Amino acid sequence: MKKIVMSILFLMTGPQAWAAAMTTVRSGNWNDTSATTPWTALTGSGSGGVPGASDTVISSHVVTIPDGLALRVGNDQTAGSTTAAYRINLVGKLIIGTVTGSTLTVSGDILLGQTAFNRTADFYPLQLNPGSGLEFDATSAPYSTATYVVGPTQSLSPDAFPAFLGTTALPCTVSSRVGSGTGYFGVRGYNTKVGNLIARNTNFVRIGTGTVTAFEPYLSNSEGYFEASTCTFTSCGRIFTVVGVHSGAIFKLYNSQWQNTPGTHCAELSSAGAIAAGERLIEKCAFDKSLGNPGAGCNLQNFTIKSCLFEQKFANGTFSLGRWSNMENSVVRLAVPADTNTNGNMTDIYWIMDFNSGNPHFLLTATTSKTTYYGIVMEYTGTGGDGDGINLNNSFDHIVKRCLVLPRSADGFQAGGTLATISISNAAVEDVSHNTMMGSPSAEHGIQLNETQKATQGTIKSYKSNIYWDTVARGNHFNTLTAGTPSDNAALPESITNNCAWNASLATSVYPFVGKTNVGTYYNVATTTFTPGASDVNVDPQFVDITRNMSKWSLSLGGAQTTAAAMIILRQDLETNIAKLLAYVRGGFAPTNPLLRYAAHDGLTIGAVEWVAASSSNSGAATCCE
Question: What is the pTM of this model?
Fold first, then answer.
């Protein structure tokens, strides 16, 4: 008999002794043990009988954890347990901290029972206030690899709305304990939809993994809202929009940074077409991995991307990304060779191919309408050649303007590729103007035509006020590979005017230029009737400093002369420092030869950058714009 009693006592004092969930009877402070306690009964394992590490909670009221407390709840649930550490019913709410913050550690799921039908403004079922923390800990669970979820309760709509409301001085922290499993915001048998999140001034650490999604917003209606503003994501899994962002929903990543991302990409996004009252914004964000995986459904349709840094690549694969509204003032670095589709207007982008491989491909057009590439700076750090700059391979009258092709930074011997490459027969380019490009001894330089298919007459409608330059005479504005006999006037000769060629080679009377009007000009494109090159000014541009590139910008600011050092500087103030990088590099390619000033077709300076006096500062203040 004693043995039986002892066994019963042992079971009652073991890990599951507090298996029955504690419930609430009214709203109040978690640690209140008075007659006004929020708890139905003070039978918990915490101080005074409030819930503690050995308990789970079901709450239908507003429970507040006052400042200065560090609490734990969850009873060490196993992965996939049907018992949540903390379950918040329809009108319940959990507030962690009030002014200076508290911390709650959970060893189990947090389930939110809120729906769109009862949500009121600024009512969040799970709310962290300044300085507060939420930690997931599976170290004591039977499986230390357990994953704990914050998500909606079963069969309810996906509008559970947690909010992490830190400040600059007192940020919130949401993390998984080192050596533990992981927490995430998503799905695990409760629902296939998660929904909304608002996170401001919050540090996320080890949320999700390389194979466990960190956040799964399901923004399928006009009430959908996902925001991460001034947040950090360290060693976190991806953000994955389960369905396309609704026309009235809001998705916003603002002033946030990703680092040590364990998976292949930081986010995988999808939108559902036009925007009505909604918003799709990615601004002032730094991503250490790809933004998305088009092969798995990434679609940036009607997104605005501003002042962002992509340290490894922009997106995996070459599938359609959906046409974004605009991408501007951003830096894209490719650390390994990869084709990258672009699908929307691009303005002031620094695109760097930071690897050593032949035939680097910079930008591929995947757009379904007219696109403008304005102010793109293209740098290649390797020693290979024959690369392709902007691949204009569809028929939507694209514009290439104020772009700059740098000498390859490994040795300055040649450019890493063309300004633009056209390899299909039905390509259409409306305007190529005010660009500056270095030449190359290889086949691909300037504007590449007929690479795989024959360009047709009028493929390039206007080519004006561009500078083609080199250190020795080789190549010129166009290069015509022969995918069959080239068409005459693939670039309209009457619209090839006001350009500059320096250290270029003349087109000679050999195939395919026998009897053509381009013979004796700096244009290797067969033309008839008109002679291309009216009002050209073929002089030495006398650039300020042709050695300027990203790593030299870092050196100018006291950093190491490496791309990695430049990435660190850029992260310190993305909007400002990206603009400074662009200005510094462009400033090196400002011509000082006064013959190019006012000589463009529009009365400005020929080339991508406006003229500066030879005695002016080399600080990089030169402008690229009209």
Answer: 0.92
